[in-house]
Amino acid sequence: MVADLLATLRDLDVKVWAEGEQIRVSTPKGTLQPELRQKIKDHKSELLALLRAVQPASNGAKAPIPPLARTAPLLLSSAQQRMWFLDQLDPGGSAYNLFYSHHILGPLDPELLERCFTELVRRHEILRTNFVVEDGQPQQVVNPPAPWCLPVLDLQRLTPAEREQRIAQVVAEETSRSFDLASGPLVRTLLIQSASDDCLLIVVMHHIIGDATSLKILRRELDTLYNGFLRGHSAPLPPLPIQYADFAAW
After folding, report:
1. pTM of the entire predicted model
2. What is the DSSP string of 112-136?
3. Confidence of residue 11 (pLDDT cuts 50, 70, 90)
4. Using CA atoms, how far apart are residues 214 and 8, in angstroms rounded to an integer?
5. In terms of pLDDT, which residue wins out, 48 or 135?
6. How far apart are CA 183 and CA 181, in angstroms?
7. Average pLDDT in the 64-69 region?
8. Contact 76, 85 (CB under 8 A)
9. Closest to 101 measured CA to CA, from 200, 236, 237, 17
10. Residue 58 above 60 pLDDT?
11. Neighbours of 202 (CB within 10 A)
């Protein structure tokens, strides 16, 4: 999600703009780490397209990316096309699975965490998107929002050594299990409970719906939602002006 990459750069006070065919960056000293710099290079063409859409035009007017009606077929971005093509070459493979884990110490409400994932998936269409072929062309299909189910694996009765072995086994299984791009879902979650105040959250998604930056944004928004819901806020995050499918169509 290139729009999310721009959001991360803004959070780090990194100013980025398009200048001809180049991307210019102004950043506080030490902020632009090699990993983030490489991410900008990897998504240069998509960043240029998005920056040109939101930067002021020569006449001083802005040309924002318009939201697209969901009645028309939703095409894939160039990055998604590459991922889809690679999946056709190796169906059932797990080489493009993205993995994120979060060790949580302290009291945790699994039902509240489940509510947070329900809101995340409602908020980000890409998290409830799968990919089908129509008339020989791959298309995005955005599914309606639905309550999220967060499985909980309770290992509290195991010894520390048994828990460690079981967690390693489960993580290996979850990261190697493939996704079906046509049927989805393309993201799955699991909460492993080692003690009443010791949990491990696992999130796995296919690269066609996200990247490493997306996982960081997911974690940040998950924290915001959990803390907001815990305090009784009904909408801890503002609505998104566009979705990834809007950018892909643009």
Report:
1. 0.74
2. HHHHHHHHHHHH-GGGGEEEEEETT
3. low
4. 9
5. 135
6. 6
7. 79
8. no
9. 200
10. no
11. 20
